[in-house]
Specification:
heterodimer, A: 167 residues, mainly alpha, Four Helix Bundle (Hemerythrin (Met), subunit A), 2 domains, B: mainly alpha, Helix Hairpins, elongated
Chain lengths: 167, 101
């Protein structure tokens, strides 16, 4: 990788980490929602560096176009100006440091202890391979995923209507 | 210096821990939701990195399924959160104790 590519890589890394910190630690929820946008874009950029072109496009389409839009709708429908000043942190936030530290320690320990493979092949566009795998080896999970999405759609509509009937 | 698999795993671990911190320390249900998305993205990043360096394209298929499940989860979860908000006028998880005993 040339020097310019490396600079762009680290910009994406800093964008991802920095904006994810804003998501978690900012006290105003709308800032968190918009910081999530930059996190998703940063991760899409890292997918490009990992030669996963199709997934980078799906990341932007599904996460930014679908999931983030839904989350921002959720923020707009549930936040009132008066609720902005309520305490946002849990009562036991310092106890939470213990499981956070343990999870981080376990992950770092695993990264250090394992000898990772370093053989990188130059693969071309991945779309054709992914499509062939989805329709042959992974056909059943693929169909199950569509059933799951349909069930989630019906369930979400049922939840939305339930309140109207209760009125 | 070349960017190897370890760097992506470090980044993935860091993102995952930030997500865990969000779930454990925030009280707003929507922030917890976003933190879950962060954790899912961290796992996706690790999957894609492995699929690049093993190299085996199957890892990217898994990312695809994770995205599908995340979309389903967001649809149902946000419907639940909005319904709770309409009933209780709050998304503070300390005040939502319908299923606690």
């Amino acid at each position: 990788m040339n020097i310019l590519g490396e600079i762009v890589f680290w910009v994406f890394v800093l964008l991802t980490i920095g904006s994810s910190m804003v998501v978690v630690f900012h006290s105003r929820i709308i800032y968190s929602a918009f910081a999530l946008l930059f996190t998703f874009f940063g991760i899409a950029g890292l997918y490009v560096f990992l030669a996963a072109d199709f997934l980078a496009a799906s990341q932007v389409l599904i996460y930014v176009g679908g999931i983030l839009t839904l989350i921002i709708f959720g923020v707009f429908m549930t936040t009132k100006i008066t609720t902005l000043s309520i305490p946002q942190l849990t009562h036991h936030r310092y106890i939470a440091l213990i499981p956070i530290g343990l999870v981080f320690y376990a992950l770092v320990h695993m990264i250090f202890k394992t000898s990772w493979p370093v053989n990188v092949l130059d693969v071309g566009p991945t779309t054709q391979m992914l499509g062939q795998l989805l329709l042959t080896k992974y056909l059943v999970p693929f169909e199950l995923a569509s059933v799951l999405l349909l069930a989630a759609l019906v369930g979400a509509m049922r939840l939305a209507r339930m309140f109207r009937e209760a009125d | 210096m070349t960017v190897g698999l370890e760097w992506y795993l470090w980044l993935s671990a860091l993102l995952f821990v930030i997500g865990v911190a969000g779930v454990l320390t925030r009280r707003n249900a929507l922030i917890i939701f976003m933190s879950i998305e962060l954790m899912l993205n961290a796992v996706n990043l690790a999957f894609v990195a492995f699929s690049r360096f093993i190299p085996n394209i199957d890892g990217q298929i898994f990312v695809f399924f994770v995205m599908a499940v995340a979309a389903a989860e967001v649809a149902v979860g946000l419907a639940i959160i909005v319904t709770i908000f309409k009933r209780k006028e709050s998304v503070d998880i300390d005040q939502v104790n319908l299923m606690r005993w």
